[in-house]
Amino acid sequence: MSQIILTERAHADRMSRIQSLPTWISGISYIASYVALAWLSIATSSAPFGIVSWSPETGLSFAAYLIFGRGFWPYLVAAVAVSNVVLHGESFPIVYHIFSPVIIGGGYAFALNWVQRSRWHFDIKLTTLRDVLILETIAIVSATSIACACVLLLSALHVLATSDIGYNMFRSAIGDLIGISIVSPFLLKLANAGGLRTPTREAVLQGLSILAALVFAFGFSKLPHFRLFNVMFFPIIWIALRSGLEGATYGLVVRKSV
Predict the structure, then answer these.
(1) Fewer CB within 10 A of the end CB, N or C, for the chain?
(2) Closest CA to 54 of 218, 228, 180, 211
(3) CA distances (Å), 166 to each of 5, 137, 148, 170, 179, in order?
């Protein structure tokens, strides 16, 4: 029991040290990481209008705001603005560059601020099923609302055809939701644990099983990938059963990265 108390106290101390960093250092690091992740998601997707299949930078935003608090919201807005300029440049009208950071960065900050100040407040350590469910619920609601607003803005600016609105709303919302569901729990668990876990023999085998599942799913060009892709669930189930939510977040990040 004493060992558990000491471990929990050490984790709390590590989180306190993270939160005590000067805001400008945390903010600049976050913005640089946001742009890098946004570039990565675009580089691995052929989707137009920057609407990608998954958005890890949105998951980073969720985790950063939950860790550093309501005073961090200007950096969420600034990260979207910098990302737009660096990655999209003249692809979008100036009006979009002005309003999208407010819609995206401000929208997610508003949603998280509201839920954390309401009776639905949850522990960012994600120690209970309730915490995870509330995180996912606010992710679904906010991602859907922001996707609708951004796509409607693109349509109003005649960047996006009216016939493409529904599809791109769905794609944008799903991309943000996947990014939040995979990256946010991983980063929150990582921050509360104080660092990456030391790999064990079983963890190595689990990592190799993810790679094997990927090879099996995509290594046979003439077979139906959408069916073979189901084998990816088996390594994740194994990891989740053995290591809980923390292990599952590691496995999902590895799976999505490779």
Answers:
(1) N
(2) 180
(3) 51, 21, 9, 6, 20
Residues 6 or more apart whose Cβ sits within 8 Å of residue 161: 155
Token couple for 68: 């550093």
| pLDDT per residue as tens digits for the range 125-134 | 888 889 999 9
Which residue type is seen at 77? Answer: V
> Phi and psi for 84 in degrees, rounded to 5?
-60, -45
Beta-carbon-side half-sphere exposure of residue 76 (alpha carbons within 13 Å) = 28
156 in Cβ contact with 137 (< 8 Å): no
Minimal CA–CA distance to 29: which of 85, 72, 87?
A: 72
Predicted TM-score (pTM) of this structure: 0.79
For residue 31, give the nearest of 64, 4, 2, 1 by alpha carbon: 64
Helical packing angle, 23-43 and 56-68, nearest 10°: 160
Report the C-alpha gap between 50 and 160 in whole angstroms.
12
Find the range with the poorest average confidence among 27-36, 98-107, 184-193, 239-248: 239-248
pLDDT confidence band for 61 (50 / 70 / 90): very high
Helix axes 56-68, 165-193, angle to 10 degrees: 50
Helical spans, DSSP H, in the chain: 2-19, 23-43, 56-68, 73-83, 94-101, 107-116, 129-156, 165-193, 201-218, 225-228, 233-257
Residue pair 37/178 in contact by the 8 Å Cβ criterion? no
How far apart, in Å, do the first and last CA atoms of the chain sit?
Answer: 39
* Coil/strand/helix, residue 52: coil
